Each structure stands twice: as C-alpha cells, then as structure tokens.
Amino acid sequence: MFGEHGFFILACYGVSALVLGALALWIVLDGRAVRRRLDELEARGVRRRSASRENG
C-alpha cells in the first residue's frame, strides 16, 4: 500500500497522533488547573481589574 517506506510513513502518522493527543490532554488539564486557581483567588476576594468594566 505505501511501498517500501510503509513502516516509516505509518510510524510518522502514529507519532504525530500521539503528540497531538498529548498536547490536547495537556491543554485540557492545564485549563482545569487555571480555572481552579482562579476560583481559589476569587474565593479569597481577589478580583480581576477588568471586573468593574464587565459588570457595567
């Protein structure tokens, strides 16, 4: 199907898929961690500077 370079081609696709999957997982986990830190800060009373503009 891919000729004499089939293994190399499939290996490259496999590595690329693993890297993209790892990056997607990292983004999701990091987003959750950032959201958790922001919620903790807001619970302590720390507000964003833009909060006054957002609320009116």
Automatic annotation (TrEMBL):
Belongs to the CcmD/CycX/HelD family. It is found in: Cell inner membrane. The gene is ccmD. InterPro entries: Haem_export_protD_CcmD. This is Heme exporter protein D. It is a single-pass membrane protein. The keyword Magnesium does not apply. Required for the export of heme to the periplasm for the biogenesis of c-type cytochromes. The chain crosses the membrane at residues 6-29. Its main location: membrane. Keywords: Cell inner membrane, Cell membrane, Cytochrome c-type biogenesis, Membrane, Transmembrane, Transmembrane helix, Transport. It comes from the Bacteria. Pfam families: CcmD. Signal peptide: none annotated.
